[in-house]
Amino acid sequence: MDPAQIYLANKGFICHQLMIAADERNLDLDVAREALDDNRENHRRLQGCARPTPTNPKRSPFLAAAMLLAPELPIMVHFGEFPHTPVIDPDTLLATLRPGDIVTHAYRGGGGQLDDAGEPTATFRAAVERGVRLDVGHSGGRLPFPDGAAA
């Protein structure tokens, strides 16, 4: 079943809660490769779930598969747990990304891109400096950064 149909049916995060997109049993490289090859002219990027394996919190088979299947395309990932999708730790994730890859929901905070003082981490700055791109990816989230306006 297409997870998008479940989202539309219940208007919630049931796919995340049931871990449908995070279950390695649903990772089929042959089917993904065939779909990508049949439609390569339509793809501008792939979204890779950076969900870790149960045995290795620093490795995401989904992110690795996306990079393997389409090394020439940017991979888009997201930070943090929103709300039921833990990802590999931010430093490992950022180190994995290549120039041109995209971090979505990059400005919602709480994903590991800011230090305790609210400043971008050194790893986050280094990723951006080497060409990792940032995307608002608002999608009903929030932008919890001060704007300097008086309260």
Task: Walk me through what this model shows.
This protein is α/β, with parallel strands linked by helices and 151 residues long. The protein contains six helices and four strands. The chain has one domain. The chain has helices spanning 3-10, 14-17, 29-38, 61-69, 90-96, 122-129; strands at residues 46-47, 75-78, 102-104, 133-134. A four-stranded parallel sheet has the order 1-2-3-4, with helices on one face.
Q: Write down the overall geometry.
A: globular
Question: Radius of gyration in whole Å, from Cα?
Answer: 16 Å
How many beta-strand elements?
4
Mean pLDDT: 76
Percent helix range: 25-40%
Q: Strand order across the biggest sheet?
A: 1-2-3-4
Helical stretch tally: 6
**Which blocks of ≥5 consecutive residues have pLDDT under 50?**
none
Provide key terms for this protein:
alpha/beta, 6 helices, 151 residues, single chain, 4-stranded parallel sheet
What layout of secondary structure does this protein have?
Elements: H1 3-10, H2 14-17, H3 29-38, E1 46-47, H4 61-69, E2 75-78, H5 90-96, E3 102-104, H6 122-129, E4 133-134
Parallel strand pairs: 1-2, 2-3, 3-4
